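User: Second chain of the day. Same drill as before.
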Amino acid sequence: MTRKKTFFFFYCLFFYTCLAAQTFNSKPIGQSGNWSGTRLATTCNGALYSIDTTGKFIRTNLSTGEKSAVNDQHYGNSIRLWGGGKNLFTLEKDGSLYRTHPETGQWSILGKAGDWINTMQAVPVYGYLYSVEKNGTLYATNVNTGNYIALGKPDFAGCGALYETGGSLYLGGASGNLLQVSEADGTWKQILSPQSLTNSIAGAVISGKLFILEKDGSLIRYDVPAGSKTVLGKTSFKSPVFLMAAGIKLYLLDGSGSLQEISL
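Assistant: Same format as last time:
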């Protein structure tokens, strides 16, 4: 009898601890599998934008899950998609960079065809697109003219992710560390040590906070640039997965084609 009571006590304690550790709520948007075939996804101006395997560019209302075509162009050659600053950017297989207006669908090439062939990661910020190339060089591109300049030294080879919040860039390094990088001159300092982000598979930022999704489903918040870490709980998904932010919420789109809203 004593063993049963002891077991029951520890079971309740474990169950309570699991509940207490979950500090976010999630709910599905639209029908399960409604975004099957998604290759690329991002958020911009409070909406979800995605490109599917047929080359269609799709806008999703995040309140209702309603989908509509951005335009009638074919985006089958797009290999990267970034949103922000009232613009959508696609990188093509030939290294050309295009800008698409999220509301009108109007599109145009930026700079010369093929100029971004070595681009690994990018993030749009207030009229500029910051990007990192394979050799580790950080560039700032004027999104109105396509003109670009290199910033600082080529210190960022192996860049795995690039974010922006609070007037700084945050770069996930090849060793699993996190760097805070100046948008003005490319100078940087390390705020998370190597191996900190080794298990990261997706990330997004909201108002000075970096949210990281790990391989085991753990959702982690880092306050940047302080670097303090909070484990928010776990979620389930099917790879590959996109983690995006809109307003004060996160959105997770996974390999099953299902979309969920995460309220923090």
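The chain has a mean pLDDT of 92.

User: Great, on to the next one.
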